[in-house]
Amino acid sequence: MYYLPWLFLLLWFSDFKEDTAVVRLVRMRALAYVGMVSLMALIPGSMSRADVSASKLSEEATVFLCGIKNLLEDVRDGSSKHFAERTEKAYGDVTTYREQVDKEVYALKRLLEEAEAKKKFKEEDVRTLKNAAEEIKRSNDREYERATKLMHNFREQREKAMEATRRALEKLQEKAMGKSSQGASVTLVDVCNGRKHPIATGTALKAALERWRDVKEKGITNCTVKSEWEGHVDEAVTRMIQLFESLAGVEKAAPNSLSHLALASAFRRGATNLDSLEKIVQDAKRAVQPGAVVSLLDRANLSLSKENTEGNSYVPWHEWLFNDTRTIVEATVAIVCLFICLKRNGVTKLAIEQEKHKWSYERNKLEIDVVCWRERLYNLENNLKYFKAREDYLKAKAAYLDKVAEELKRRADENNEPSDELKKDLAGDRKKRADELKKRLNELKERADELKKQSEETSEVMRLEQDMEKDVQFWRYWKGGMRNLANELQKQTEEKNDLRRWAEKQETWADGQEKDVEKWTDELMKDPEEENAEHENTHLVYDTVSVRLECPHCPKTYASFGCLKRHMLGKHPSEAESDANIAVDNVRLECPHGCGKTYSSVGCLKRHMLEMHQ
Questions:
Q1: CATH architecture for the domain at 52-314
Q2: For residue 51, what is the DSSP state?
Q3: Which of 49, 138, 251, 384 counts the highest number of beta carbons within 10 A?
Q4: In the chain, where are the structural domains located?
């Protein structure tokens, strides 16, 4: 029976001309079957020829421990990487198909809009095709989102599986060891050196761990092996199973996305050819049938690789089994080998054990939940009993208090019924007491009025006293400040007087300068004839020189308007500058010869007198 694995290996290395997804899947499963058979058949046979007398572990225990160790190493070195490559490839296909679907839907909408503008399609057909394209895009986006979530979960579970595998190997190599007959330590690595192992999957590792536990429970290990590593192996098993589930989900999303691409391509092809709606729908139905996707993509000239289309296309099992590239003998050998492996319980027993373990786990979980709920129910019943007893106690206490209240009320009624004589005495006492209280109240009222007057007088005196204290404090505080203030005011007054005297000096100097300027101007403007006739016009010069400008606010006179303006701005600052300008401008110089002419400047008056009164 040891030739069966070699038949599977022969099937594995057969020269297949086509490497389809089904062939790869059958190869992987065949290799898994070889591993299980090797675990049950090859390893025990090889161990029987190996020198295991050096370890205290029994032969069967050593076989299963070595199998677990080799499976863990394969998970660490190969299986997780193989699953990662498959998942990344499938996710890449989903991403590519999504991009192509978006392009096809966009192109379809453009074609439909152009055809609708040219009246090539009916409005109802255009609306139907657009809605179908949108639905295809939404469905494909959902597949992409689901594949993205599965891919994220796969990466996370792979990291956790690698970490759990590493810890399990460390604990297994540290704790599971024995002693040789000479007393030297023999590790599990030495014992398992050279032993073969199948490809590691979550189910194979789980089955090996369960078989080891069965052996350990039967007590045939011949020595004590600590079980710290078993928890890490359980975690690695769980992570590997979740890895495989994520892989299956991503690989399932790839053909679904490809079907969406086929539908979108069929719609776009029909819109390009201006086919009827019925023909477009028929082409779309044929596109999603088995074997029609690749031909449709070839007709649409999509930029998809042959590997992606073939890897996700469906090939019926009878076409794969009886293909021209295989012989009937090869198919028969494969079927016989598979049947014999199933008969040897390599796969069936594993599936049964997996299902048994699954239902056992579910049953234990349900039992734990039942126990928890029973405990909670018991606690609720106890709480209910307690609250009921509390309610009865409170009711009894309330009834007792009601009785006590009635008794007290009865006694109070009896005490509140006095005799007639007592009533008369009480009435007289009350009246007398009321008169006394009224008299006392009047006395207190008069006393209160007197106290109020006294308090007002006292408050007035206190207020005056406080004002006097504030005045004293103020003058004490300002005793030195008043002196400084007086000195400062005197100093500012002196500075102001000095400034006034300086301004008067400057004004006098400015008047003298202006007179000199006018004198020099007149001398420069004189003609030689005028110089000759100077003795004749002497009275004119005297007349013009004797003209003075009088200030409208004081009796001072000035020889020029500038001096008068400076005087008014300096001596009469209360007047605005505009008022000073108006006052100066309103001053007119009248001709002294009685002609009635007036001028605004001495120069103009002088020219008038020289021209008109020579």
A1: Up-down Bundle (1.20)
A2: -
A3: 251
A4: 1-49+316-346, 52-314, 367-414, 423-469, 512-612
Q: What are phi and psi of 562, to 5 degrees?
A: -60, -45
Highest mean pLDDT pick, 2-11, 58-67, 331-340, 402-411: 402-411
Report which of 287, 291, 282, 286 is spatially closest to residue 265, judged by C-alpha positions.
Answer: 287
Judge whether 177 and 224 are in contact, CB under 8 Å: no
What is the C-alpha to C-alpha distance for residues 88 and 76, in angstroms, rounded to an integer? 18
Q: Return the SS3 of 275.
A: coil
Nearest to 23 by CA among 201, 246, 15: 15
**Cβ(598)–Cβ(585) under 8 Å?**
no
130 or 547: which leads in pLDDT = 130
- Among the listed residues 239, 235, 79, the one whose alpha carbon sits nearest the alpha carbon of residue 158: 239
Q: What is the pLDDT of residues 297-316, one digit of tens each?
A: 333 333 333 333 334 444 44
> CA–CA separation, 62 vs 59, rounded Å?
5
Question: Residue 569 pLDDT > 60, yes or no?
Answer: yes
As a three-state string, the secondary structure of 383-423 is: HHHHHHHHHHHHHHHHHHHHHHHHHHHHHHHHHCCCCHHHH
List all residues 6 or more positions away from 543 whose beta carbon is below 8 Å from its beta carbon. Answer: 592, 609
Q: Which residue has the higher pLDDT, 259 or 167?
A: 259
Residues in CB range of 100: below 8 A, 6 or more apart: 261, 264, 302, 303, 304
Of the candidate ranges 111-115, 127-131, 323-327, the one whose mean pLDDT is the lowest: 323-327
CB 12 within 8 A of CB 36: no
Pairing of strands 549-550, 557-558: antiparallel
Taking the C-alpha atoms of residue 40 and residue 343, their distance in angstroms, rounded to an integer, is 13
DSSP one-letter string for 448-509: HHHHHHHHHHHHHHHHHHHHHHHHHHHHHHTHHHHHHHHHHHHHHHHHHHHHHHHHHHHHHH
Mean pLDDT, all residues of the chain: 65
